[in-house]
Amino acid sequence: MVVLISGRGSNMLALVRHSGESGCPYHIARVISDKPTAGGLALAAGLGVPTTAVEARGSADRAVYDRRLAQTIDESAPALVVLAGFMRILSPEFVERYAGRILNIHPSLLPKYPGLHTHRRALESGDRTHGATVHFVTAELDAGPPVVRVRVPVESADDEFTLAARVQAGEHRIYPMAVDWYCAGRLTCRDGRAWLDGAPLDAPVTVDAPETARPATQVGP
User: Fold this and answer.
1) Which tens digit of pLDDT belongs to each residue from 152-172?
2) Which are the contacts of 197, defined by CB distance < 8 A and separation ≥ 6?
């Protein structure tokens, strides 16, 4: 698979580390960033993963950039494209090119809070539970079929930063899980729905984080 990042790539690192575990069904062929200075490129290279920067070069034309990005992705002929903090909105043409084989992780319990500033919005709304969702990517932002989510309790003393850190720990738990399912042939996307083990998911698989969330070992559905 190929992983796309824009920053330090903490979810990318969780995926890379998991790829080295016995029995992991996937191999990361390349990490690609739209920013040559992204910290995650150096981290991935340090772990022996090939990296490439496909810089936007100031172009406002999303479709032109996405064609360049797709050319680089296709050099690795991946079965799966994984977005791990890739901060560009993808064109419908790009999404169609990889339909059914792009995963993203979003820091909210979708469909709540698509877009940015999800932790702030959860706190401002007084939510008692927050989290993250892995979903297939469609042309509509953060609206593709959900696969798995982690629920994190919101604590009374939380601010954006403490809540974000605990949600991110949950992300590192569920993203390798979803990628494992896909690369082992258990997870597919068809008819506008996610399917796991041959059955449609009427709701995403839910993992509950402990009161103090931390990276955890993989669990089953």
Assistant:
1) 999 999 999 999 999 999 999
2) 186, 221
Tell me: the pLDDT tens digits for 181-206? 999 999 999 999 999 999 999 999 99
Residue 104 to residue 136: CA distance in whole angstroms: 6
Q: Which of 106, 119, 130, 172 is catalytic?
A: 106
- The CATH architecture of the domain made up of 1-98 is 3-Layer(aba) Sandwich (3.40)
**Phi and psi, residue 125, nearest 5°:** -85, -5
Q: For residue 106, what are the β-bridge partners?
A: 133
Query: What residues contact residue 59 under an 8 Å CB cut-off, 6+ apart?
Result: 65
DSSP three-state, residue 126: coil
- The fold for domain 110-133+145-221 equals Rossmann fold (3.40.50)
The Cα–Cα gap between 13 and 110 comes to 23
Q: Is the dihedral of CA 92, 94, 100, 102 positive or negative?
A: negative
Does 172 participate in catalysis according to the annotation? Answer: no
